[in-house]
Amino acid sequence: MTITLRPGSTVVFAGDSITDCRRLESEDGLGSGYPLRIAGEWGLRHPDRPVTWLNTGIGGNKVMDLEARWQADVLDAHPDVVSILVGVNDMGWHTLDPEGYVISVAEFEAGYDRLLAPLAKAGTELILIEPFLLPIHGVVEAGVARARIGEEERKEWRADLNPKIQAVRELAGKYGAHLLPADGMFAELAATTGPEYWAEDGVHPTPAGHAALAAAWLRLVS
Fold this sequence. Notes:
Layout: E1 10-15, H1 17-20, H2 34-45, E2 52-55, H3 63-73, E3 81-85, H4 88-96, H5 105-121, E4 125-129, E5 140-142, E6 147-149, H6 151-175, E7 178-180, H7 182-193, H8 207-218
Parallel strand pairs: 1-2, 1-3, 3-4, 4-7
Antiparallel strand pairs: 5-6
Helix pairs in contact: 2-8, 3-5, 4-6, 5-6
């Protein structure tokens, strides 16, 4: 079953930099990533069903950051649909920030659950996008400390991320949410093109990566 977007529906995109994409610098507030692509494609396909699209992503955010601003940024909008993509900063925060620490799966899942509970109670439709990490090669700089992230760090990140992806899957089942299996999707896509084609640093999608996310998201709605 897909989610039906009716005329006048409000959709909120929540998350970190992957969702943010400099939204505050954009005229429509949607940024330059997958939320913009979704809104544009929907408008092209369904001019008779206008939708209000809101992007509340903020770069660097973790689940705990979303929770701190959830009421004002999401719940107060009384959305019909909420789409969440978060987790990559929960995965690597302790290696990117001198004051960071390892965020446990239990802490991540409990915080994520608290985001979903009031939405489910209100009858809001939910789309949960798996956090993802593409197996790029070489070393990149990331985070406020410009940490150098190479093969060993990415192995650590992957070991940390896998159970958090599983937590998102389980929460989707618990709340009857639609799951967008982005980690698996990008793994399949990267098998033929190489991972850098979809996300040069393994985390932030290229234009093609954002297009892939948007196409997968749009398959969940009608």
